[in-house]
Design a protein that fits this description.
By secondary structure, the protein is an alpha+beta fold. Helices cover about 35% and strands about 25% of the residues. The chain contains two helices and ten strands.
Length: about 180
Amino acid sequence: VAVGVDTVKAGAAVYYVQYPGTVTALKEVTLLSQVSGYVTGIYFKDGQHVSQGQKLYTIDAQIYNANVQNAKAELEVQKAALVKAQKDADRYHKLDEQDAIAKQQVDYADAALATAEKQVAAAKANLNAVGANAKFTTIYAPFSGTIGISSVRVGTSVVAGNTVLNQISTDNPMAVDFNVPQDQI
């Protein structure tokens, strides 16, 4: 019987195994509102490419803008109180130099001045907080990518941190997640 003979040589072996994979974006975000209210505007088309910083949604800002105006007025009131407390403290210190006033009155004036300074600082912090909420009534794209189908329409009530508005994902570059059984890793 004729026998075939072959010479063994080193070479590249072709071997592969197929596994299911899921194509996924490397960057993806779910958009949620940071304030509650009614959606007053949607500024994109479902599935379109959006650019970073592009306006996507607006939420009714009337209450938030009113809160900003109120906080500004409160800050002005506290500044006026600070001016008065400063004048009183200065006046009482001059009288104290002439020994024409009780030390207790000077102490009260200094305490009122310190309190007024802290109230101005608190009013500024409150203005910053309500101002931030007013800014959160407009939702912008955090990065460039493709936006999905909107989960809300104009007039929909959204709850801060709860209502999903949409998703944005990048499409370049992409990744593939493979599901490999544990015993084959």
